[in-house]
Amino acid sequence: MFNSLKSANTSQKKTNELSSSVSSATPSAENKSPTLSKNEGIKLSVSSLNAWFGTKHALKNINIAFKENCVTALIGPSGCGKTTLLRCINRMHEMTPGASVKGQIVLDDLDIYSKGSDPVVVKRRMGMVFQKPNPFPTMSIYDNVASGLKLNGVKDKSLIKHIVQESLQGAGLWDEVKNDLNKPGISISGGQQQRLCIARALAMQPEILLMDEPTSALDPIASSKIEELIRELNERLTVIIVTHNLQQAARVSDYTTFMYLGELIEYGPTAQLFKNPQKELTERYISGKFG
């Protein structure tokens, strides 16, 4: 999918339009930050992370490492902190009035909360797909995908066209809309709109794709297409998905994290966590005794 994006980087060095803008560890018993090294294949590590909404302590000393090119599912009952963790990872949490965060999140070698870290640059390295499809209502299918590139100063029309096509192909949508690119993005089905939002995220060449219950508003057929897409995307991206659907977590993820009341209860390979959970609370949740 991204062959043209690689060549695009070369061409953009000449124009300087794109290069500047599109630039497992389990918590210990003492809940200390895991010790990680780059050769462990860790893409993103979270250490001693705490988050608040005013005085409400939403995340409590979270420690977790996300492996590169793997899908990690975040599961747990409503209000346990799954979405808040995603929002902390892409620095959206601090945009909420009264919200605060403390701790360390390292993307490769970059501490994204360090004083010298630019939130805009951080967000460009991460794509975000929300619970409900949110294509820009006044834009065409084409312009929805191209919008991020244009906002970041890319002016080469042939380059934009090529990236739009590859992004739609990567989202499994190109064959369905290639003759309707000028139609409004909101004119297609809900499932197609969600894949359009994924294509919009892919156009910015993210290293991590964050997905907040991306199929909860979709029918089973559309959900199945998104799940297939997730398994394909993790060949080139690190994917973190929030889901209330335990069967979905089991189908699409390599690793699963169970959260409860703002705490990380258990983390491990998905098959192991579902078949042989180490914590009683995890077993009770996945067996349907609460949640």
Radius of gyration, CA atoms, in whole angstroms: 19 Å
Total domain count: 1
Helices and strands, in order, run as HEEEHEEHEHHHHEHEHEEHH
Helical run tally: 11
Instruction: Please estimate the helix content.
Output: 25-40%
CATH superfamily: P-loop containing nucleotide triphosphate hydrolases
Q: What structural category characterises the helix and strand content?
A: alpha/beta
CATH topology: Rossmann fold
Q: What value does the average pLDDT take?
A: 88
N-C termini distance: 39 Å
Number of beta-strand segments: 10
What spatial form do the alpha-carbon principal axes imply? globular
Architecture, according to CATH? 3-Layer(aba) Sandwich
Strand-residue fraction?
15-25%
Question: What does this protein look like?
Answer:
This protein is α/β, with parallel strands linked by helices and 291 residues long. 35% of the residues lie in helices and 23% in strands. It has a single domain, classed as P-loop containing nucleotide triphosphate hydrolases (Rossmann fold, 3-Layer(aba) Sandwich), CATH 3.40.50.300. The chain has helices at residues 3-15, 82-89, 119-124, 141-151, 157-170, 174-177, 190-202, 220-233, 246-252, 270-275, 280-286, and strands at residues 42-53, 56-67, 71-75, 99-107, 110-111, 126-129, 208-212, 238-242, 255-260, 263-269. It has a 6-stranded mixed sheet, with helices on both faces. The protein has a 4-stranded antiparallel sheet with strand order 2-1-4-5, covered by helices on one side. The longest helix has 14 residues, at 157-170. It is globular, with a radius of gyration of 19 Å. Residues 1-39 have low confidence and may be disordered.
